[in-house]
Write a structure and sequence with these properties.
eight-stranded parallel beta sheet; alpha/beta; 16 strands
């Protein structure tokens, strides 16, 4: 599978999302996401390139996995090398050599992950850099300006994420602040070709999720994300929250489930009408000797794979699947860097192949069948 970026002739006012087909038997939908760098076939999975690189894989090989779009991190890139350095080096696309679309997150997750050392108020968040301890002041306006300097195709609003479970008043306060911050982000944004996505918060509370979705829809963003999930809650609770939330998102805008996740979670999101996903799991797990396959996850450090001459997945076209499981295990046991590289390539290829199969199933009105067959096979 090979992806080639093409520059799309669009104007600043062009709609991003085109609905191609909706499955007759469920909410799964097939569409395209149009940016100046390329059109992305939806549903799609974005590899995470936090620092302008998807860990363990060169950009040319990343294209060969079938990846169409990648994600960069506002907080991390603003600290190192700094957004002005990236701007002077031609923007994030030229900086890292990726020709396709890029989405940058806002730094909201870092507010969550560094909450113990952060001070959060209506103005924004103040915390210490994890690199040198210097003070970082991140406001909605600052987040937008960093992302404009990076030059991503899609920028995310700054939101206030809180851990789950939590008291309802804490979740409600963070949700309402996220809406106010979203409005400030929109008011601050003035990059003609960078589209701004809002983020729906509200924990696992049905009324708060619907309230947030309705308030953000009134503000009319280019796209809508569901955030604050995959932070430790059971998968069933995440699916239930999507059941409440997605019907309140605009049909004519792209929908993005942030930070998710496992292949079965992605398919559950698609089943409920989600278009876009990201997660570190395929790359992180690959570096830790775990391979995703249609029959479940292989943990290749296990001794049972020592003399296993089968490929990781018989139907996978990636370079790792031209070797044996025993050989890849040997690389990890020996501490050879090729092991993590091969499994990173494999896992990303697997994810991209999975969403491509999902797209085809939607077009043929058989996504429910595809979903059920997959879930049965991996259990």
């Amino acid at each position: 599978m090979h992806y080639t970026a093409t520059h799309v002739d669009i104007t600043a006012d062009s709609p991003m999302f085109t609905l191609i087909h909706k499955d007759k038997h469920c909410s799964a939908r097939r569409g395209t996401l149009d940016t100046v760098h390329a059109s992305v076939e939806l549903p799609a999975f974005m590899p995470v390139g936090t620092l302008g690189t998807v860990k363990g894989i060169e950009i040319g090989l990343l294209k060969q996995t079938g990846s169409q779009m990648i994600l960069g991190n506002t907080y991390h890139l603003s600290l190192r090398p700094g957004e002005e350095v990236v701007r002077k080096l031609g923007g994030l696309h030229r900086f890292c050599g990726w020709e396709g679309p890029i989405l940058t997150d806002s730094g909201g997750f870092q507010i969550f992950s560094l909450a113990q050392i952060a001070k959060i108020d209506e103005h924004g968040a103040v915390f210490r850099s994890h690199i040198d301890g210097s003070k970082v002041n991140l406001t909605p306006e600052r987040s937008v300006k960093i992302q404009e300097a990076l030059g991503s195709d899609i920028a995310m609003v700054l939101d206030h994420v809180v851990g789950l479970p939590n008291e309802r008043h804490v979740i409600e306060d963070a949700m309402l602040r996220s809406v106010r911050w979203a409005k400030r982000c929109k008011d601050a944004a003035d990059h003609p070709y960078q589209k701004l996505f809002a983020i729906v918060q509200g924990g696992l509370d049905e009324k708060l999720r619907i309230q947030c979705a309705d308030m953000l829809t009134e503000l009319d963003f280019a796209g809508y994300a569901v955030g604050g999930l995959s932070v430790g809650e059971p998968p069933e609770k995440m699916y239930e929250t999507l059941n409440w939330t997605v019907p309140h998102l605009p049909e004519n805008k792209p929908r993005y489930l942030m930070g998710v996740g496992k292949p079965e979670d992605i398919l559950n999101g698609i089943l409920r009408g989600i278009d876009l996903f990201d997660c570190v799991m395929p790359t992180r797990n690959g570096r830790n000797a775990q391979a995703f396959t249609d029959s479940g996850t292989l943990r290749l450090r296990n001794a049972k794979y020592q003399t296993d001459d089968r490929p990781l997945d018989e139907n996978c076209p990636c370079p790792a699947c031209k070797r044996s499981r025993g050989y890849i295990r040997h690389l990890f046991i020996s501490g050879e860097m090729l092991g993590p590289i091969l499994l990173t390539i494999h896992n990303l290829t697997y994810y991209q192949t999975l969403v491509a199969r999902a797209r085809k199933a939607i077009e043929e009105d058989r996504f429910t069948e595809f979903y059920r067959d997959y879930m049965t096979a991996v259990r």
